[in-house]
Amino acid sequence: MGADLEQIRWWSWRRQRLDRSCRGIDDCLRSIIGVYSANPTAALSLLARVPRIMPGMVEGAIDSKIALRLPAMRRTVWMLHAETAHLALHATSSGASDRWLLRREGLTEEEYDRLEHEILLAAGRPMTADQIREAIKDPPAKLAPMLHALTATGKLLRIKAKTPLSNAFSYAATRVWLGHELPDADPGEALVWLAGDYLKAFGPATVEDFAWWAGVEPAQAEAAVRAHDPTDVGDGLLMWPKDVHAFEWTRAVANRVNLLPAWDAYTMGYAEPSRTRFADPELLPYLYDKNGNATSVILIDGTVGGLWDFTLSDRKIEIRIGLFEDPMPRALAAIEAEAGLVAAYFNTRTFEIRRVKIRNALSTRTGGSHLKPLAGQDAKPARPKPSAKPLPIAAKPASSASRRAPTRAVAAKPKPVPARKPPKT
What we know:
It is built from 16 helices and 14 strands. It has helices at about 5-15, 25-30, 40-45, 55-65, 85-90, 100-105, 110-120, 130-135, 145-150, 175-180, 185-200, 205-215, 220-225, 245-250, 285, 330-345, and strands at about 35, 65-70, 75-80, 155-160, 170-175, 230, 240, 255-260, 295-300, 305-315, 315-325, 350-355, 390-395, 405-410. A 7-stranded mixed β-sheet has the order 8-9-10-11-12-14-13, with helices on one face.
């Protein structure tokens, strides 16, 4: 049975809950396994899936023990559901002991044991790295590697960031924060569980896709996926047998727009060949850097129609939008509405949308460019404005997530550009 690309696109889009059907953060994390923990990715990924995400709700999920921040897939830090977070941790662990620090930092066994004991004792309540340093005797010159080692083994948890854009988290000892250590799990069995949930959230997908996403060896990925006896719907794309009938009846959804952040779970979920479900192949160099990091994208009816990023300062936000072709007026209005939700999440007073040109492929740019793909890009030429001063209006929020948005300065409409071609470098 051959799989139709449009069926794959819309099935994946729905399974990633991009129809905003999640009933809350709890439901979202159960459905898609997790979101990248980095700020502001976690909040913006949830905002694209949950009807109402207000400031404080993400940290509230951590405080209420619904979610945990732990190293998992590709050994990056994820925000995972607390009930299954330990399985993702054990499934993707390299098996290397936290004692790698003994070699890297020149610590003796005794020094490592002492630091571990003192750090976990000091982190009986959430403390910053600086507070932990002050609380222990003879701290090492570099404390961060020790903190990373303890979080990698699940003995220490990242708790709260200083600001919604900061990735400087406070830390707490797992035993004290949860009241118990993380449950143990056999790595092989945990990987089988992870493969099953991956097929539910990301299928139809290939073994290569799962290996890329999880950061495990192809042979491990093959064994874990095949343990579920999945159905091949064509071209090596596998899915749960019980999902096949519903998949065959998948239909497109009109007039849907999503603003996905850098490192979103969806765009990071597949190896390159499978990314054509949401992007034309010639656009992929504009969406991923040399290391495979996905940038922030605009999905228009399930496919990438452009890039976006923002700058936040003093409760003012500028949201930059670069489109590969001019969308229909309804889609442009939906983009502006989604931008209004982003501005509202950050509790800004005003925001402005600025259209820019996309000139350079992300794959040719320096590291970190995926976080601000439109920084330094030229503004698109605009039609003459009816008045010299833009009029402030209230951005209209999407119906599924309606709430009051901050005031936005209206920019003049841009001139049409050629359709569906990547810009020249």
